[in-house]
Amino acid sequence: MRLANNPFERDNTVTGITDTGVGFKLRAISQKGAVPTVSLLYTASLPTATQGLGTGAVGHSVQILASKDFGKHHFDVNEGVQFVGRPQGGYDRNYFTSLSYSHPITEKLGATAEIAGFSRTNRDIPATLTLLGAFTYNVTPRLVLDAGVSINAYGHLPRAIGIFGFTYAISDLYHFHAPQQPAVN
Q1: Does residue 84 belong to any structural domain of this protein?
Q2: Is 126 helix (H, G, I), strand (E, B) or coil?
Q3: Is residue 176 part of a domain?
Q4: How far is Cα 95 from Cα 102, in angstroms, rounded to an integer?
Q5: What whole-number distance in Å separates Cα of residue 70 and Cα of residue 163?
Q6: 3-state class of 179 per DSSP?
Q7: Which domain does 18 fall in, by range?
Q8: What is the pLDDT of residues 14-69, one digit of tens each?
Q9: By the 8 A CB rule, do 119 and 128 touch?
Q10: List of residues 6+ apart from 83 with CB closer than 8 A
């Protein structure tokens, strides 16, 4: 299950919250040998943003996520399509691509880097390309804090954006599918 929202954003002279994303991620293939983990990510974007910060319409995105570990080196490749809702009805479409790398520094501290971009959405929204550098801190196995900087390499985005956030895993739904061990008397 996925819930995404920026509770605080400042863009030019507008400050407020952004649109809210709700959806799910489903792991189709688990990493084994040379085979990467492959997942499907669906997100619906709901128009909850402060006036001037969101799209003003419902949107949808679908991505294929591939992840592979080589020892402590972790790589992700993501490809997707986004249907950006128009307030007057209908959708514009763009494509998303990202490549990321992460590696632990200590038992709890890690570093990550990413290059990501969207294709042109319509004649008013050009393509974008960003470079991200961030640190992660594992407070617990379920709670991860992150902070970093995203640099705009191409497109109409702010030159640099500071990013702070957290990820909290509420439950591991996959453990319900694990084979049951016989009871020991």
Answers
A1: yes
A2: coil
A3: no
A4: 23
A5: 27
A6: coil
A7: 2-171
A8: 677 778 889 999 999 999 999 999 999 999 998 887 776 777 889 999 999 999 99
A9: no
A10: 59, 60, 61, 91, 92, 93
* CATH code of the domain in which 154 resides: 2.40.160.40
What is the rounded CA–CA span in Å between residue 121 and residue 135? 30
DSSP for residue 177:
G
Angle, CA of 19, 63 and 54, to the nearest 5°: 15
The token pair that represents 61 in the structure block: 């995105």
Residue 112 has pLDDT above 90, yes or no: yes
Q: How many structural domains is the chain composed of?
A: 1
Q: For residue 15, what are the β-bridge partners?
A: 10
| Nearest of 83, 86, 81, 112 to residue 99 by alpha carbon | 112
First vs last C-alpha separation in the chain: 37
Q: Is residue 144 a part of any domain in this protein?
A: yes
| d(C-alpha 152, C-alpha 115), whole Å | 10
CB atoms within 10 A of CB 45: 24
